[in-house]
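Both lines are given unchanged directly below:

***
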Amino acid sequence: MKEKILVTGGTGYIGSHTTVELLNAGYEVIIVDNLSNSNLEVINGIKRITGIHVAFEKIDCICLNGLEKVLKKHSEIKGIIHFAAKKAVGESVQKPLFYYKNNLISLINILELMPKYKVEGIVFSSSCTVYGQPKHLPVDENTPIQPALSPYGNTKQINEEIICDNITAGASYKSIILRYFNPIGAHRSAEIGELSNRIPRNLVPFIIQTAMGIRNEISVFGNDYNTLDGSCVRDYIHVVDLAKAHVISMERVLNNKSNSRLEYFNLGTGKGTSVLEMINTFEKTIGIKVPYKIAERRKGDIEQIWANPLRANKILGWNAKETIEEALKSAWKWQLKQKHF
């Protein structure tokens, strides 16, 4: 058994897939989650995939005392992967204080406790939203950070600054910050996937639920952007590819494979796909039409962005391998298996 890793937000979409990959790699995992956007059935799904019943603590990361109890109970945690955060761009525009409180305090609590309990490293879940609307595409890690277009994006920028400032001030831990582009898909077993306790916040679940007839149509927010078809463009990456990058990153942090105490990596495919292209690809791949309507632009949306992932390819030895078609097939299989929406 390798080191013990704490995964915050571990019953969530990316957190659950990362937990599976950590367990498969031989790590011991403790999950912390408040279940605000997930449920305990995910723990059973992880067990059906890995054969391991992972330790779980229902804790909100903005509760410092609760987090400390977890670190006391599960001694010798060597690394933390921090996913726990609110992440909906539109909701953050409507509820900015809610986002700032949740996303900033949770990280500060973790960083305060790490030295006390001799936690050696943290892999932080960041986002391509930190780049705002970049002037040049694709974006690499040296692309200038633009003003955030939403409170959500701003919380990620601030969180990155908090980690950087704390390491500069002499913090004992190492950190890798992973800037995600747009995760889609599900585990090939269909035991875990993207399940929201509320209305979906991401494109693919909306497409799938519309194709199933759960929703009458999907809204495409804007068709007058400066893109090939007028709809927003994103870099869609399979969630399992994304999860594997976290395992590699944690190994790098704990095994001192870098002389730097802080590193940044973009995680994407290097290819942009528009919203309308994604709908069309789903229709061709699954063979079901998806009704949609053009709606007004959504406040906080970035027009277009995709990654230059060469740094992650070269330094981490990581590559996005799964196609959009494979991701859509896995997401469809996952949604078909669900009894509740």
Notes: Residues 4-185+237-268 form a domain with the Rossmann fold fold (CATH 3.40.50.720). The first strand starts at residue 4 and ends at 8. The radius of gyration is 19 Å. The chain has a mean pLDDT of 94.
